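haha ok so turns out i had the wrong file open the whole time. this is the CORRECT one, sorry everyone. sequence first:
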Amino acid sequence: MTLLLYAVLALHQADPSPGGRACRIEIDSVGRLGKSVEVSPGPPKVYNYFAGGGVWARCQGTGSSLTADSVAWYGRDGRLDLVGNVRIRDELINLDATTARYHTRAERLEAHRNVVAVNRSTGTVLRGPNLTYLRAVEGMRDTTEMFASSRPTIEYKSDPDSAEPYVVVGDRVRMRGNDRMWAGGRVTVDRSDLAARADSMMMNESAGRVVLVGRPRLQSHEWTLSGDTIHLVLQDGTLHQTLAWGRTTRPRAFSAEQTVEGDSLALDTPGQVLTELRAFGKALSTSKRDTSAAADVDWIAGDTLVAHFAQVADTGSAAKSQLQEIVARGSARALTHMSEENSSGPPDINYSRGTSIAVKLKGDRIGRVVVSGRADGVHLERLPPAPATPTDTTRPPPRP
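then structure:
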């Protein structure tokens, strides 16, 4: 196939890509005889080439190689079609597909069916029915880009040594370079420490930022978060802080025992352990302390709320946090149920108002309520136990 090799090289040298150097294809070997067809007498002459039976080729001077069962080169269009068992090894990605089309003048590769693309730098893997790959070429584009549709799956890693990837699925996905990604249409993001859902997502790994828009919902360990927009702050590939806001959907964070809502929310999770939760604007938190008593719901409200957590021992794989104190400031109100330890009777009920209220917990019970600034309220003590009814043993038994 020497004739085919030099003809292709001559064509590319005579018709380079605008602003950059195109891939100059060298055919190393062909399993069966190829065929060339002159489509323009020139000058320069333009040929179409066809070869099958297994074709091995490479891009001269780039380190990129490709193989396929058969290839077709269309000189007038500067297009190479690859059919059957396509394997492309670029400087950035390893790409496998059933068919592919390479537009050399635009440095654009389109792959279809059973597409698997692996980023050789980070270890990120894309699987799906199609992929459009735009190579970085001097004078044309400075960063590689990839586009995929029909719900591809991306196993996203920031570097090859990352312990666990984020699995991202969406109707449409765009990736730029090694650190930026956009997804739209029923987006899901999953890892062992979180599960996120949204209409669209934007990720910038270098900036440590992920934004979820359109009915977003985030579940991380024992907490679930919802709102119009959820903003995730990453540090070293782990979730460090979460922000939520919105007008259509009021932000809300809830666990099995507690719910917090406000005009906006902020959760601090250094080391993936919840340490502080803040709510701003008409903030409200409710807690259920005794699941056997439906009415025993504690709540605290104010202009702002700050909840402090501490890590508790856990034998499982994920660290857990326990609420230690919650503070309301600005038009603060609180309703709490207070009972002695190991008490089986009904609790005291306390309603308080003030400029600020701090509720301190003792395990899973209310330990103390501190009210400051124009404090007032009502405290209802539990009823004392009813006196025992005396039994008169002197009275004779009734007649039968």
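The helical segments are 2-14.
again sry for the mixup
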